[in-house]
Design brief:
This protein is mainly α. The chain has helices spanning 21-39, 50-76, 78-83, 98-113, 120-127, 131-144, 174-193, 202-218, 238-270; strands at 2-3, 10-14, 17-20, 159-160, 170-171.
Amino acid sequence: MIDFPQINPVALELGPLKLHWYGISYLVGIGFGWLYLRHYVRSYFSGWQKNAIDDLVFYCSIGAVLGGRIGYVLFYDLQTFFGDPLLIFAIWKGGMSFHGGVIGVFIAVLFFRFQTNKTIFEVSDFLVPAVPIGLFFGRIANFVNQELWGTPSGVPWAVVFSIPTAGGLPRHPSQLYEAFLEGIVIFSFFNFLIKKRPRTGITTAAFLIFYGIFRFFVEFFRAPDSHIGYINGEWLTMGQLLSLPMLLGGVIIWYLAVIGIKMKQKNKQEK
């Protein structure tokens, strides 16, 4: 059992201005993701100018933040929003939905795609290798914010969060599980995958599949939102439910990409 370290969620306070670790994590994640795309991923994808990468990261950052916040309100906390609509702007308090962020980024990719001669999957394949960087820092921020903690547990690494709503019980540090799986593991896999220069769509499909699987798995160790609880009996959570379309979409995209490869090989043989 480990007591939660005394970490002030406010990193810097200058008069009325407060800089929260949660906000810093977004800036760091976006910054490192931008550098990673500009100076590493770009070398494995042709036709990407640095100014186009800058535009893509800018649009997707806006889409991720707006989509993440709006998605959280719609999927997890609609009643609170009706009571105080201004809370939708209180990002520093936490409450961001990754699934909503995906929708926001998808809209941003569509917007960017219409300004270029690239297809949707050419854009998304280039972008998704950097997403685990943002996920890693975001989950660390969840831990610092003492939110999205896990179910009660007796494992040696269980954490006793100091926030009253955690009940003083040792719990799974599910935020760190997600930081490892969604951040480090997926990032490492993409570092390997992009070197193989897979067919268009495979990289996007791989991200949707791996994220869907990892998120569905970690939800078994993560306490459901108190105002929602379990959706079906004692195991299905909103996070798992929202991960299923991602997983299904990834499988479909992967199948279509593989079929495309086989059709191309068949055409070559016939010629």
